[in-house]
Amino acid sequence: MSSRSRAGLVGGAAVGLAAAGGAAAAAVSTRSRHRRSLADPVAPELPATRVSTVAADDGVPLVVEEVGQSEAPLTVVLVHGFCLAMESWHFQRALLAERPGTRVVLYDQRGHGRSGTPRQASCTIEQLGRDLQEVLGAVVPRGPVVLVGHSMGGMTVMALARQRPDLFTSRVVGVALFSTAADGLALGRLGLTARNPVVAGLRRLSRLRPSLLRLGRTPVDALISPLVRAMSYGDRHLSPAVAELSETMIADTAVRTIADFLPALSGHDEHAALPVLAGRPVLVLCGDGDRLTPLRQTRVIADEIGEADLVVAPGAGHLVQLEQPVLVNHALERLLERSVAASTAARA
């Protein structure tokens, strides 16, 4: 079959799927607006002090929010995971915004949240590390920094460490890695690989007929359903508002972004970055019910760093910072205290 025929076949199938998915897309949009109107009673979100857009080195716009004063002696940068957005740090943002002498910086990774849509070739962990470097250079050009990454965000932090070890010697005074892995995610057993015909078809459509992917969500249902199950919570009671927040972030992630990042997530290897993280306070945290980044991968990170504080959240799934915010915030507060003390001692 010629390439033109194959394109026509894929495009024709997508037209039908997209047409059938129009109502589903409208429903997702309605749910998204409804969720954004919710105010979780546990920890109301504080407004940003400043919202800006930082251009990545390839021009993709990254939306950044800052909470707190720019002259604060410590800045904590929160880097979210795959199919999520900066809202996934809801409880940590609330904690840090009230911490004296601390500024919070959050941003939406490329293709996620309000940030711009990248080219397929740039959907790599390597590029995400460079994006983080651009955010630091634009909004945190000086002063001590603590980097906190969840899932793909943890890989982003590790990529930056490998690319710019000098930053971790001079400015990064602490690191937290939540529910992440130094090498490929457990996507194969979920069927989320480049060989999956749904994944391969969506990647092809994103190149040949990208407009079709914006018409409906039905084509992605088969792709994200195992991801949603893998990112489900553990066995504890969960606020309905928090559950809806996570479901909405996943549903709002573009089909193209999901398909384009899967090969990078399953094939990355950042073990070379782990020695760079040694020598400063490091928190490594994971739920023992995490199916996407199992606890064994977290233990590998802690062992290779050597002096990391390993915290296990009993019964928690992949979105541990939303499911068990009290445990996570307590561990994060301890990390910040250690980081400030280490930074003060180093300057002295």
TrEMBL record:
Hydrolase as UniProt keyword: yes
Keyword field contains Hydrolase: yes
Record GO terms (molecular function): hydrolase activity
Source superkingdom: Bacteria
AB hydrolase-1 domain location: 75-325
Keyword terms, alphabetized: Hydrolase
Pfam family of the protein (one): Abhydrolase_1
Protein name per Swiss-Prot or TrEMBL: Alpha/beta hydrolase
Organism: Rhodococcus antarcticus
Organism lineage string: Bacteria, Bacillati, Actinomycetota, Actinomycetes, Mycobacteriales
